[in-house]
Fold this protein.
Amino acid sequence: MQISDWSVLLLALKLASYLAILALAGTLVIRVISSYEVDETNLTYFNRYLKRWQIICVAIGFIAAILQIPIEAGAMAESGLSGMIDPFMLEIVWQSVIGEQALFRVLVFIVVMIAVCTWQPVSKTINYINFAFMLLMLILLTYSFTFTGHSSDKSILIKGILTLHLVAIASWAGSLWPLYKSCKLLPITEVKTVMGYFGQLAIAIVFVLLTSGMLLILQYLNSFNEILTTNYGQLILLKLLFVSAMLLLGAWHKFFLVPKLKRQHHVDVLKRSISVEILVACFVLITTSVFTTLVGPTY
């Protein structure tokens, strides 16, 4: 597997897109669970932080969507930076499915940014409408990954399963940073409340993640031996190891750390543990980016 400068740029674009989707999914999850039994004053302050975090990450995703066409053109031209502005190469990329994907994402990110910036939880009805609308945009963004790559020629069912898988991993991994910040921005009792509700919701998220993941593995690998004998299978195995580590850390939080949240020392321990889980989640995203960008399944 050869990695060029253009491959690194394409990986960076994919990671930026992942970051935007994670921030969108994670903050939606935290919005749901923090609306229960959290003091209104603390919740308002916490929501302001979530809003700023979403705006930053969505802006990064928007920039990545804009840069996708020139970087793809440069990668195809293989003539240095000049390839990024070559009219002929730009036209080829623009008229391809890559151009459709980039345009689709740009438009969705614009709509998402408007929804995020106008989010003001002044009433439950408006909050529910905004939440439902942003959830729809999240599904559209994750579905855009099926336009290109290994799933582009798959059935609508497989694309749907992949979308569900991406939403699940984004909801889990994307919640980690807001949960980490909640340890700083919310009182101990409310941190325990938020973490408790997340632990309950995480059970459903993990079930969807693992079920959809196994179905996708059966689609992309012809036999179990390919997990050990192909680059694609080995990267999937590496991803599974990282996900398993996240599961163990999540179980550690749910059954051991959260029930003991009584003093600031306990919150500090939880915060450090969440930071480790965030690091593992980063490895999951990098591994996913590598095998979806540089390595393909064997057919």
Observations:
- The longest helix spans residues 40-77.
- The radius of gyration is 20 Å.
- Residues 203 and 250 are 10 Å apart (CA to CA).
